[in-house]
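Input record (one chain):
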Amino acid sequence: MSKTLFQKIADKEIPAKLIHEDEFCVAFYDIAPQAPVHVLIVPRKAIARIAEAGVEDQALLGHLLLVAQKVAKQLGLAKGFRLVINNGPDGGESVPHLHVHLLGGRALGWPPG
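The corresponding structure, as predicted from the sequence alone:
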């Protein structure tokens, strides 16, 4: 099976402006930002979508949220931010590799879609 775009970024086969990197995930700026700050937090482990994560992924999923918190603080999003995980075509998923969108830098409306 071929690598996803995000696997290639995590493996540094495709360049990206990384803002965080550790043994479990990478975080980088989205190339089509939907807010002044739009960062993607991507696990190195290939999980197609949240609906396919297993109980064995519990620690990794928690790690992604803690990295989002760290990056939000680093980027000065003290007034607030939003985390989004898309799942499947109707959920807005465009890359079949689990990732967390960190959005901020402006007031975000509700409902989002």
